[in-house]
Amino acid sequence: MADRAQPLSAGLRLGAGAAVLLTLALTLGPLGAVLARAGTFAALGPADWAALRFTVAQATVSAALSLGLAVPVARALARRRFPGRGLLITLLGAPFILPVIVAVMGLLAIFGRSGLVNDGLAALGIGRISIYGFGGVVLAHVFFNLPLAVRLLLQGWLAIPAERFRLAASLGFGPGDIARHLERPMLKALGPGIFVTIFLICLTSFAVALTLGGGPRATTVELAIYQAFRFDFDLGRAAHLASLQLALCAATALVAARFTVPSAFGAGLDRPVARWDAGGAGLRVLDTLLLGAAALFLLAPLAAVFLTGLPRLATLPEPVWRAALRSVLVACGSTAVAMGVSLPLALAIARRGRAGMLEVVGMLPLATSSLVTGTGLFLLLRPLASPGDLALPVTVAVNAAMALPFVLRALIPAARDLEADYGRLAQSLGMRGLSRLWLLTLPRLRRPLGFSAGLTAALSMGDLGVIALFADEDHTTLPLQLYRLMGAYRMADAAGAAVLLLGLSFGLFWMFDRGGRADAGA
Amino acid sequence: MLVLENIVISGFFPAASGRILWEGRDISGLAPGERPLSILFQDQNLFPHLTVAQNVGLGLCPSLRLTAAETARVDEALARTGLAGMGDRRPRTLSGGQQSRVALARVLLRSQPLMLLDEPFSALGPALKDEMLDLVSDIAVETGATVLMVSHDPDDARRFSGETIVVAEGRAAAPEPTQALLDNPPPALAAYLGT
Questions:
Q1: CA-nearest residue of chain A to B103?
Q2: Choosing among B58, B89, B107, which should be mutated to test the A contact, i.e. which has the most A CBs within 10 A?
Q3: In chain B, which end has fewer C-beta atoms inside a 10 angstrom radius, N or C?
Q4: ipTM
Q5: Is the pTM here over 0.90, yes or no?
């Protein structure tokens, strides 16, 4: 009976209505302000064209490399079982909540001017490579999106029924035949969606371009908005660039909406696929090398940050601790807002039983970027307060909005199950309003609520986006403070702050997620 | 397939036309929980995250804010259905028969004039099922309730003697005395019974 629309109760209608209004105010409101300020689409200058070209080029190459490298790694993971396999798969989920600025620190320690790789190259008498510019931006994007692509592809492999592999084995298929008949069709079906998803992430990524890009040849549109805003305080140009970015993102999001991409957080990923074709020594060596290289690529940068940063933790200057406290408060604030908005939205969507306008509203933040929203909010709120005073509230709001699509993706299926399993019983007993919320909804949705609250808190904790537009000395968050330490070449303090940030992000995630699991009862 | 929610009186299924009168009062617009009836579904009759006593207590007050007297009534209902001392346990720690008893204890407390049952014991073995049907009939006598049960098993119908409505090819026939109906079935029922 799940497909039958149930009338929404007055309380839920009120909550969902408020949630929709808030979401629209945080997405369409700022977009409207940006478009109004930008006025007519004036001709793009050469610098704008360069930013547009660079943005699309780095996103294309990043998405292609991430996907291309993910295929052999995911295949190796799918067909091998070894100790630590489950841990490696969990680790592949970590970059999602890893603060970008921390990863950049790690990549600098390995691939930077005086990093391990360059020292090695110099020892061999080969010239040094530079991590800044196109190569560095792509490297960082691959670092973040290769694991995502591997997890998504792994789901594709696991979705191939085990019976097919058994049938293939009984027909004497070799690895080549399996690839042709089983794997390539799956890759063809999943590949485009994963590519577009990563492409969209790379279009809107700001912190990577801020730290590793820059200059006339390596500026993304998102970074150009920041520079117009922050350095030139040219609001017209910022609005102009923001509308360009908006068009780019909205067009990509429309394309992305045509593909279904499995959730990257699916359970049961540690189940290996039974294979009879991959026993050859050559393939075994190849898979071992691939998995080792992938693990090294992901772990080495983080290990480098840890080793340099951990000893500095105790001697971090006081402003860093103050920024950390501010960040924790911002993270908790965004989590509260995101949960308050998404729970009524998810319940209303589940009650309606089919996808509709509510779901579109919830996914709107995917089509915008944090700097576009930030620019718009600044234009809207400028008459009311000074940018410094707005910095933290605006960051809370934007972080909550940006997390909304991920939270809804976790909550909606659970809310649908809840409605299908216990909706009738609750109705037959006359459970409504707050008693239904306390006695049924919150206890049954505890797990997805805890998980998505953890995601939101960690994303918000590590976010270096809109805060960079607004913050003055008194309103910095920890990621921004870390960026400033790096800019001042205080690398040891920066590494200490990075360890602190890493610990707080993962700690917040763990705390909320754990809270959702504890005493789940039944 | 006939399921209980598809019966208009349950409140889960809107009537295409007409209205439902109960003791002269129009109840067509009432939500399922406000109607003068208790329902036992085929499955999912208990909330797994609530204790046995809480599940039963929902029959008295949907917000579970129970007075001391009401808590005592919950204990009484548990004792009456053979579940004394099990109030603090979670449903999944009980056997299938005990879980059915919890749901019946709640029906007993709600004490509504109409009991709707949708093959509620089809997952139980024959002996246990008979035991539950006897408990249903005891509770119905105690609370003076009318029982409306959906079943595919003619033996269930015989147990309650009463009257039977045959539903075949999308039409519900008028109620007839069960014994006579089963002894001398009309063609549609005969085809179903295979006699």
A1: A425
A2: B58
A3: N
A4: 0.82
A5: no
